[in-house]
Amino acid sequence: MPHCVEFDDFDDSLGSPAKGLCRRMDGYGDSKFMEKLLLHCASALETGDITLSQQLMWVLNNYADSEGDSNQRLTHAFLKALVARATGNPLISEQQPPTLSVMDLAYSIDLTPWYRFGFCVANSAVYEAVRNYTSVHIVDFGVTHCMQYPTLIDILSKRPRGPPLVKLTVSVSSASIPPVLNASYDELGLRLLNFARTRHVPFEFRVITGVENLLVHLRASRMLGGLKSEEALIVNCQMMLHYVPEGTVQKTGFGLRDEFLSAVRELEPSLFILVDEDADLTSTELVDRMRSAMEYFWIPLDAVETVLPNACWQRDRYESDIRFKIENVVACEGLQRVERLETRSRWSERMRKALFRSVPASDDMFARAKSVLADHAAGWGVKREDDGLTLTWKGHNAVFATIWVPSPRGLEGQIAETTCTMLSVPSLLTAKAVYNAPLFLPLNQPALGVRHQYWDPLCEIKAVSTQIVRSFTRRSHSGEEETIRKPRLVH
Description:
eleven-stranded mixed beta sheet, 15 helices, single chain
C-alpha cells in the first residue's frame, strides 16, 4: 500500500514545500493522495495562502492528464476548476458546453446506463399508470431533449386496448445545460410526430419556454377544464430539478425547490417521476463540496473508461460535460453555481413535505431496470431503496429513480399558505445565472436586473394566450393530416 503523506508533511523549512514533498513521497500518483492534494489546495485558496496553492497546483499539474486514466482525468478537471477559481475568472462563464447532433446525443446516451436507467423506470411507471386512461398528458422537465419518448410511444402503441392520446408538453429554457443539442424543439417535435404516426399513436406536442410559464399554463388549463378525468397528468423530471436553487443560494433558508414541488402538487398529477443524480453538492464550504464532487464525478469518468479508449474524440466529448459541471461546482458561487445536487433521501424529504407519497417499484419495473444493464459493463448494478430504485457503479450510488403520487389531504395536510398555491401567492420569476438559465426567484425578492412585479389572478387565464408565445402544437391522429397551430395573441 503506497504511503499517503499527510498535510502536516508540508514544512516551510524545506524551502519549497511542494517540491520537497515530490522528492519524499512514495505514493505519488496514488488517487487518494491526489485527492488530498486537491483538497489541501482548495483549503489554501479559501484561507488566502496563494503561495502554497500555487505550489500545490505545480505538483498536481505533473500528475494531471486530460488523456490519462480516469484518476488523472479527474485530477485534471478539478485542477482546471481550481485555477479558474484562483484567477477569479471561471472558464464556465466564457465557454459553453459543446453542442451535439441528435445522433451524437443518442450515441452518448447509449454509452452507459446513466440516462437509460431513468428512461426505463419512467416509461415503465407511465405504462402502468395509464392502463385505464384514454389520454395521457406528460409534462417533461428534463435535460435529454425528449430522447426517452420514442420508446414510450412504441410501448403505448402495443397496449391491448389500443394506444391513448399522448400529449407531450416540454419545458424549455434558454439555458446551456449539458448536454446541449444543436437541433431546435420544432425539429424534435416533428421527429416525434412522424414516429408516433408510424406507430398509429395519436400525438400532440407543445413546447413552452420557462418553467414558470409552463406552470401558469397548466394551472389555467386546469381552471378552464383542460385536465379531464379521463386524462392522466404525468410530471416527468429527469435530472433537471437540481437546477432549481435550494435554500443556501440566498442564505435565507427559503426553499424554492419546496415551492416548486408545492406548485406541482396543486395540479394533482396522477404521477410524479423524479430521476436525478445521487450526490450532495449543496455545501457552502468549498472543501466539503469538492470532497463530495470528487467522490461522485469519479463514477462517470471511471465508467466510460471501460467502453472507450483514452485517445478518442467521442470520450472527450462525453467527458466535456462532466468537466463543465466540475468547473461550476468549484469555480462558481451564489447564483452562478447552479450544479446543486441533493441526495435521494433529501429529495424524499422534500416530496413528503409537499404532500406526495412514494410508490414502490414493482417487480416488473425492477426487472426492466436490471435488463438495461445487460448492454453495459459488469460494474453497473440496480438496487431497491425504500423510495425507489438506484443505479450503482461498483457499489457507489450514481442515479436514483423514484415514483410519487399525491397524498390524500386532511385537515392537518394542507399545503402551507406560504407556498406557491394556485391564485394565492406570487408566482416565480426567472433570473439568468452563469448558464443563462432561468432560475426561480420569488417576486418579493429582487432578481438580477428584473423589476418587481405583483400578482394578478386574472393573469392566470390570460397567460394561456399571451405569455406562451413560443408554444406550438402538432396533432397526429390516424387518418388526419398534420396541422401546426401557432398561438394567437389575445390582448
